[in-house]
């Protein structure tokens, strides 16, 4: 639809995904009727690096919706996983098509677990749903409208206040600052302390010895290091 020229804001909702996937090709469990599975066409009129803030803006939109309406008290795991009750309740994926160095379009995909009571064995210890965390059985259609309103609001800040997206994300995530984390890339594993986001949305890590490193979302897995007793 995006290639065919459908306008920005065109969205598609699925009742079920038979081949749902997340970042880095990971599978996304999306059983029928138990989640909100949404893809939206975006045609951002901004250049890199601002366009890299789209996943952060989307995460804020989801987090604010779940908190404002359902009192879920979500956390955001960098860059855009929504954590409720210590487990993942929502995944976000942005894929873009470029032409002559400019973004032709981007597809924003959002999957929110709503009614699941059980999960596949491989994600049972890390996934959760709004039903499990709040006791509320939320219909996808009831969540869709307020979510789209907040998406439009936060997406609009890309052109008017990108720094505001960074600041809001840092306030909304327990991972943003002073959090000891392990970083797993394709080439190495190391630990450090988070020190906020760069203007491009990269996660800044303070390494032992005082050096800093900016981490890009496409290259890592991130987890908190438990404090020693």
Count the DSSP helices.
4
Q: Write out the strand line-up for the largest beta sheet, numbering strands in chain order.
A: 1-2-6-5-4-3
How much helicity do the residues have?
Answer: 10-25%
Gyration radius, in Å: 17 Å
What is the CATH C level class of the largest domain, in words? Alpha Beta
Whole-Å distance between the termini? 53 Å
Secondary-structure content class:
alpha+beta
Judging from the principal axes of the Cα atoms, what is the shape? globular
* Overall domain count: 2
Number of strands: 11
Q: Tell me about the largest β-sheet.
A: 6 strands, antiparallel
Tell me the CATH topology of the largest domain: BirA Bifunctional Protein, domain 2
Please summarize what this structure is:
This protein has 229 residues and is of the alpha+beta class. 24% of the residues lie in helices and 32% in strands.
Question: Mind explaining what this structure looks like?
Answer:
This protein is of the alpha+beta class and 229 residues long. The protein contains four helices and eleven strands. The mean pLDDT is 90.
């Amino acid at each position: 639809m995006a290639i065919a020229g459908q306008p920005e804001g065109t969205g598609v909702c699925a009742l079920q995904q038979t081949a749902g996937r997340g970042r880095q090709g990971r599978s996304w469990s999306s059983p029928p009727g138990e989640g909100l599975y949404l893809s939206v066409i975006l045609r951002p009129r901004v250049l890199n690096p601002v366009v890299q803030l789209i996943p952060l803006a989307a995460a804020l939109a989801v987090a604010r919706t779940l908190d404002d309406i359902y009192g879920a008290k979500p956390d955001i795991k960098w860059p855009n996983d929504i954590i409720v009750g210590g487990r993942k309740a929502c995944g976000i994926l942005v894929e873009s098509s470029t032409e002559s160095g400019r973004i032709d379009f981007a597809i924003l995909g959002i999957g929110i677990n709503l009614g699941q009571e059980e999960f596949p064995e491989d994600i049972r210890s890390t996934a959760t749903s709004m039903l499990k965390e709040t006791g509320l059985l939320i219909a996808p259609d009831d969540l869709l409208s307020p979510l789209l309103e907040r998406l439009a609001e936060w997406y609009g800040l890309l052109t008017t206040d990108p720094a505001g997206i960074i600041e809001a994300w840092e306030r909304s995530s327990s991972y943003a600052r002073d959090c000891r984390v392990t970083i797993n890339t394709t080439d190495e594993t190391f630990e450090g302390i988070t020190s906020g986001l760069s203007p491009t949305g990269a996660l800044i890590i303070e390494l032992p010895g005082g050096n800093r490193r900016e981490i890009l979302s496409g290259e890592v897995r991130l987890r908190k290091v438990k404090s020693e007793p």
